[in-house]
Design goal:
Elements lengths: L9 E7 L5 H12 L4 E4 L7 E8 L6 H5 L3 E9 L1 E3 L8 E4 L7 H8 L4 E5 L8 E2 L2 E2 H6 L9 E10 L3 E3 L2 E10 L5 H12 L3 E11 L2 E2 L6 H6 L4 E2 H8 L2 E3 L2 H8 L4 E2 L9 E4 L5 E8 L2 E7 L3 H4 L18
Length: 318
Amino acid sequence: MNAKQPGPGGIVVVDKPAGLTSHDVVARVRRLAGTRKVGHAGTLDPMATGVLIVGIERTTRLLGHLAGGEKCYEATIRFGESTDTDDATGTSTGRHDPTGLSAEAVRAAAVQFTGTIMQVPAQISAIKVAGERAYKRVRAGEDVELTAREVTVSQLDLGELRPADGMLDVDAVITCSSGTYIRALARDLGAALGCGAHLTRLRRTRVGPFGIAQARTLQEHQDELAVVPLDRVAEVSFPVRRLDATAASIIAHGGWIPAAEPAPEGAVAAFDPTGRFIALLGDSRGRSWPTTVFVGPDDLQQLRPSADPTSGTDLAES
């Protein structure tokens, strides 16, 4: 007997509450969706709230692409104290009086942390070092050195400073590339100003095209699970290429077709004539290949190739 093929699924946009891990949210959605095939795109720390993309069934195969999209955050940075986690959940590693710090000085220092920068991730992170998570090594007493990585901070807007427990707080709005640690951004800004800093609040407001307005709490999803269908997810997340029946059949069977001109950058979502998402395409040497196919065996029976499925000869695109 053939194993049951997963359905097309979709994504659930969750407004994650503070105190839960991203894996906790996945476990909740597994129960609500009635399937084990659930994953998330872009981890949020337990302290953080906001947009968490959870994929169901075949849509889990898109999560790596969705996690790589641009992200937006609202945060509060506290100047005057550093912590071992770079946020309020950690242990203090030093306090410095921030009296005299001005909003103008903070904004001036922030300039060096905008654009494309090299950032050393927070030590208490899920990054693997010699096969083991960095946070496990640090908590075991090891001195872990993480390699700086290139990230892009396209927006770093800062509000006015305000007193907070003998320190100073500032609210920030940040737009950045995947892989950017907002905790590390707070840490580095505090170091540049000579007074130390850590994050006291973090809320993610957007992941790629999916914003906080589309997010629902776990309780709201429990009342009615709001699933964005796979076809819609692909349509709003990638450039779209609509194929005729012959080209769709060739792609669905793993063949190639001539690349579109001009070829868009990155992955392209291919749709068949019925409007169904069938594959992600990559281009090479004037050809488009399926990097991931999203139609199953039952679906493929409906796509009868009218040309050699390994050749892109004589194809037309609708």
